[in-house]
Amino acid sequence: MTPVHFSFTSAFMLGLMGLAFHRTHLLSALLCLEGMMLSLFIALALWALQLEVTAFSAAPMLLLAFSACEASTGLALLVATTRTHGSDRLQNLNLLQC
Fold it and tell me: Which GO terms describe its molecular function (predicted)?
């Protein structure tokens, strides 16, 4: 395993562990998701550069577009839950009360 591969794998795993174990605020969950998407984007871009195939050059941009849509949806949910519940703490959210 190369050091570059190890660093992107560890960055993705740290984001995944942060998402799994540190679930107090919705904003921290969104930041962990963005960290995971950033590590996937950089790894996919480097993979496309190493293979030198033009068919894979659009894949990182497509992933970046999907991560931007995910970020905007997450921020819209953050604003909506903060307005309705008064906080972004995940313990205050209950799906049965919606």
Answer: NADH dehydrogenase (ubiquinone) activity; oxidoreductase activity, acting on NAD(P)H
| Domains of the chain, each with CATH number or no CATH | 1-92 (1.10.287.3510)
Tell me how far apart the alpha carbons of residues 60 and 89 are, in angstroms, rounded to a whole number.
32
pLDDT digits (tens, 9 = 90+) for 7-42: 989 999 999 999 898 878 888 999 999 999 999 999
pLDDT digit string, tens, across residues 43-72: 998 888 888 888 888 888 999 999 999 999
Among all chains, which residue has been given the structure tokens 């960055």?
11
How far separated are the first and last CA of the chain, in Å rounded? 47
